[in-house]
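Today's session is about reading a structure prediction critically. Students often jump straight to the picture, but the first step is always the sequence itself: look for stretches that repeat, for charged clusters, for runs of hydrophobic residues. Only then move on to the predicted structure, which in these notes is written as discrete structure tokens rather than atom positions. Here is the chain we will use throughout the hour.
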Amino acid sequence: MTAPAKTAPAAQGEGRPVGPHPGDEPLGNPAARWLSVLTSLLLLALSGVAARDLWYHFYRDEPLDESWLGRTWNFLGSFAADAVAVTLGIILILLGLILVFFTFKPRPHGYVRVNSPASIWTRPVDIARKATYTTRGDLGGEQVRTKANRKSVKVQVVDDGSGPAMQERVTRSLNNEFRTLTTPPAVSVKLLPNPQARQVAGPARTASADAKATTTPEVTQ
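Below is the predicted structure for this chain, in token form.
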């Protein structure tokens, strides 16, 4: 009998996606970022004060009680257990809880994934710009305002006189444009009154009113 053929060992990395594949969503800056910066600046300032006290203590023979930190500790230690001290302690506790909350607060989600083998993500501001560009290209107008987030797109456009037909056309065009997103946003189109139509209607109403005013009323006997 022949011996069974030896199977080749599994290649390293087998089972992993080959080539470009979607990566993790890029997240926004954590809420504790600026708190960390401010805390670092505060610690640097305290380090400078401590260095100053050490310098004056060893080279200027300044007593520890007369140093900046010594005066601070003496001032804090002289507080009596009154309403002011209790209020200050409560404020410090609340401040600590707020810092803990911002420390564990998740990073914000601010991107929408594009259906693609590669990892492509877009921002709501880019979606708004794309909606404005698409609407202007479809209507040929310039008076378009757009607001967008990860779940919805709100477009305001001046009515060209077609009314609901224009609204439906813009909505359909934007829905087709955003089909490439993994989670397409809900499109909302609002029609604004046309100022040129108002200007044309104004003189017409004025002329009609003048014509009625100059008409001679009939006299009945």
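Discussion point for the tutorial: The chain has six helices and five strands.
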